[in-house]
Amino acid sequence: MIVINPSHKCPSPQAAIEAPIWCAYIAELCDADSILDAEADGLTLEETADIVGNEDCIIVSMGANPSASSTPKAGVALKLAELIPNASVAGLHFHNMPSVESLVSVTPAWRLLDLSKYRAHNWHCLDGRDRSGYGVIYSSFGCPFKCDYCNIHTLYSGITYRRPLDVLNEIDYLVARGVKNLKFCDELFTVNKDHVNEICDRLSYRNYDLNIWGYAKTGTVNPEMLKNMKRAGFNWLCYGFESGSDEILRGVGKKQTMKRMFEAVEMTREAGINIIGNFIFGLPDDDMKTMYATKRLSKQLGCEWVNYYCAMAYPGSKLYEDTPKEDLPDTWEGYDQYSPNAKPLPTKYLTSQEVLEFRDKAFNSFYSNAGYLQMIERKFGQQAVGHIKEMMQWSVRGTPSLASSLS
Ligand code: SF4
Question: What cofactors are annotated for this protein (predicted)?
Answer without folding.
Answer: [4Fe-4S] cluster
